[in-house]
Give the backbone structure.
Amino acid sequence: MANEKYALLDTDFISKMHLIRKDDHNKLIDKIMAMPGYCFYCHKQIQVEIMRHNIAGAPEWFQSKIESKSICMYDDEMILDELSGVYGEWAISAYAGMLKTACDAYKDGYFEEKFVLVSQMDCRSISREDFLKQLQDDCDTIGEGQNLGELKSYVLLQVLNLKFGEQIYVFCSDDKNARNGVISIGGARCISVLSSFVRLKKEISFTKEDAMPYIDSYMNTCLGRSEEKSFRKFSTLTELQEFVKTITEFDMCI
């Protein structure tokens, strides 16, 4: 266990990495999953969102990884189980506090605005069943496209930090706000789609020759030169600079 690395996967990372491929049998996400010593985790909300993204083959790929236990998927009840082992009768309060921290990392006041029932409940007296129901009612009210997957992932990130007491790697979107959210919670290292190329170089000796078909695929898929509308061109100079840095780091190892 001491040599294992704990990694959290988010929706956009899985979706993009599923599309970035050398060919139909060589997807970049499978290179990530093959890195030695990593234990991968996600929240069940990620499964819901991958279904919504409707990327051909991605839901089936994800389900196969869950069934093979290559990815350990937590739901809110499992998170409460973990917290109960640490906080006992205060587990619900702990979950609510972690959810507020997750929301604050995204936007000030988001917890009170979106999780109305949870933010107003008395965590000292509510039953476990009622808490989970009200949490789900809030989530149903929030609906699609409101970063629910990110928020639940931020909660799970805090639980994994508590459980393992070690740095957690978060494989997340190239989106600057997503990365800033992870960093603001602390105790994690954020690895974007772009920086995953460098991570692969370090972990499995992924050479520039190995990487170039995938980098070409990234440019075609994620820079707007394909019919896929889920992704976009670089939105900031920082993202463009990170892309140049990725190529440069591969050049330095030749």
In short: The chain is about 60% helix and 10% strand.
